[in-house]
Amino acid sequence: MNYAAQEALQQTYDAVVVGSGATGGWAAKQLAEAGLKVALLEAGRAVTPKEFTEHMPSYKLKYRDHSPEVVRTRPIQKQCYACMEYNYEWFVNDLENPYSTPPGKPFTWQRLRVLGGRSLVWGRQSYRLSDNDFKAATRDGYGDDWPISYADLAPYYDIVERYVGISGAAEGNEMLPDGQFLPPMKMSCGEVLLRERVKAKFGHTVTIGRAAVLTQNHNGRAACHYCGPCERGCSTFSYFSSPFTTVKDALSSGNCTLITNAVVSHVNMEDAENKARGVTYVDRATRQVKEVRGKAVILCAQALESTRILLNSATREYPNGLANSSGTLGRYLMDHVVGAGASGRLPEFKALPNANEPRRPNGIYIPRFRNTPSSSKHSRFLRGYGFQGGAGAEFNFSAEGYGATLKNAVKEGVHGISLGAFGESLARRDNYCEIDRDLKDAWGIPALRISMTHGDNEAALMEDAGATAAEMLEAAGAKDIRVQAKVEMPGMAIHELGTARMGSDPKKSVLNAFNQAHDVKNVFVMDGASFVSSACQNPTLTMMAVTVRACAHLIDSFRRSEI
Amino acid sequence: MKRRELIRAGVLMGAAAALRPPRTMAQSAAQSSELTPAQSGVDASKDLAAPGWKPLFLDEHQNETLIVLSDLMIPATDTPGAKEALVNRYIDLVLAAETPETQRAFLNSLGYLDGESMRRSKAAFRYVSREEQDDLLHGLAYPRTGSGWAGDTNAVPDPGHAHFEALKRRIMTAYYSSQIGERELGWDGAFAHGNYEGCEHPEGKHK
Questions:
Q1: At the N or C end, where does chain A have fewer CB atoms within 10 A?
Q2: Contact B199/A85, CB-based, under 8 Å?
Q3: pTM of the entire structure?
Q4: What is the ipTM of this complex?
């Protein structure tokens, strides 16, 4: 244990923040900059730019990024495209971090334990939700509204976007509110063609992806240099990741103590006062058990992990998990449904792929067009889906034949185009996680049993998405269109949400509108666990905005001495 | 101990540490394995060209067959081919670390070539003439889609084509991931090539 960590344990902090990813970084920054004394706990090690590998060619790797060895320790993590021979140590070792699933209900849980968590490797797509999402239950009768509206969150979206730097184009779309954008990245010719023809034929919007990647120097970070593989780290910090932004700010405020290798097991309670006293963690390296005290406990460990901590914090008062008098803790697990889309080639364009072109770390986006205020109600499903995709010249590695013909065909390339859907995952009580009494992780902490399936609505969304993707590609003039309309296993979108939902009724929700536990006023969950519905937009931007809003409320509570 | 063996030892120690609780002595090993070789800056690009190279997994006949096949699959033209790129060595390395099922599947596919060659020419694939090798591969390279006569359907699996595709996939991966393969695609070795400018055509005039 280092000196800072020893100091850390001797005092009572104003706030103990668990997790240093997208939301934990923001919580630490906001609270520390407001003058609160913060302990930031991260289960993994620190990370330095020296270990970034985005400029290392794959031929320098022993297995050239096809390492069968990665699969040995990370058979589940490897299901994520971003877990590769370059960076697999950032991902959890599956042997050390087990979880279980019921027979016939696979769930893939992809996560990192390192400073910054998944913000190091995330997809960077950043979209606002609208009142069509926050008030969806009022509009179509399914589920529950969020206890907050778009107007409540909009100022915090502004704060987050201005700081993070989101490149994107304003479209005035009713389902996808515009934000504080840096200049948009450019579209390829094929993408512009798709945009024009899809607008003309269907009226749908095709826009450039809104990405947490800088298109100009911003807040001390450099504009993107278009090398491509963001998930291996960025030596110019051009995509947003917490260690080099929010966490750095928190630490330089002088009010935040970072404790790495702190695997939090549970929240400690002062039962007589019905207040949390802090958290207990296991030092990952020494396995010593330690306690950190704080006036407020803020869980930002990732939806399932934060919920696991609360479930493992059961007391006599809360036998089914801390702050779970409602019985909803662990319930309403969601993950965007994926598995549908279409791909083809655009014969109107000369392919001529070029290995020396800038590589844009971003694609195109088609906001939801089903069940919108201006479209009729769909007969077969609720809610909708959005598409991500792209078009451009690629080397044709699936060329037929062999010999010199094959060699030439690869270089001649193909102008490909593809779209893949992300669909809303309906909040269902019977999608849940609980503690598996027979399974512990390498630190002796009881592990999760995750039980989730996508339902009929998700299957109907994917079926429709396959068909509409094909129609749009056809409209763009694509040939050899291949359609896919399956439902991938839950977890594949890596957008786990719910399990400690917000709500105005303490009998039906875990958290209030400020991410504060109804049952225990100084316990907060500020990550994706708080989501009431999933919408279909990538959730990280909303998670960060919700965190900043909750922190503003918490800072006020401290000033009024309510905590 | 050679560097390659050191790395392998490091990986094994990491795996062992994962399976039992790390103790104080094991701690430094566990900590040092928390960077991937790439993140530690290890350059393995010259390993396969080492003098005295011996296959880890393939036997001599299999290795020689793979060299002949890879040379047919991606020959030297005005640019180097699969043989110069030592794709057999890379494939051997990967196979040595693969599961027994994957290893068996690869040897089945390679063995299929010999079987077909024996059937046609009474000799193993690597020993028959270039023309015979080419004839054999040509017959496997394109899927048989049925003649359209009654009883003949597209759904009939074509094992020869499947074996061909499996071998081709491995050879292509090995070739295009090598430094020679990167050059074949025209890569200049730089990572930054300016801003992404996208489409600059006026509306309706995209090329």
A1: N
A2: no
A3: 0.93
A4: 0.91
